[in-house]
Amino acid sequence: MGKGFAAQTLNTEEGKRYWKLDIYDSNIKKVKEVFKIKHHFQGVGKGFKVLQESRLYAAYDDKLFVAWEKDFNIQVFDSHGEKLYSINYNYKKLPVTEEDRGRIIEYFKTNPRLKELYEVVKPIQFPGYYPALRNMQINDGKIYAITFERSNAKIKCLIFDLKGKLLKKVYLDLKTIDIFALYPFTINNGNIYQLVESEDETWELYIDSIK
Fold it and tell me: Which of 9, 61, 132, 158 has the most CB within a 10 Å radius?
């Protein structure tokens, strides 16, 4: 962000865990705290909360675009951490179904990285609805707000200008790693570039235009 930076950190204060989003100057000295929210795991026996707020941020044009809420609210800050404006959108909330809950619990129980931790983090706690945003990319003077809504295996994306005017609704052919994560991707010049691992453990670059 200009000569400075934005960074997310995990902190413990008075025995509680928090995610924080701060702005730093060129010498990595903190300028301002932008957001602070409780971590979704606070200790053994207290459960683990999934599908909470989006916790997304991106720097573009010396501004910081932050979506750290459950609803569709992108807040925009300058390089000093002063809030400039918000982008809100009245979206259709997507409920977390019993089938979704079952798939996610099974995922925690069987995923090689997580199954040993399951006994520590259980019970898994669910909200009534998915957060508004799954991912957010900013490039070419546009905000690409990627949701959890799907159609024919494609993921719904809302495209805004930098002030929040809705330009287009599209469905993107983005590949997923698991229930939560997308394979690494970026958007540039109206194209999606995504690295996807194949069954033989090689990486393939998928390129698709946004129409």
Answer: 132
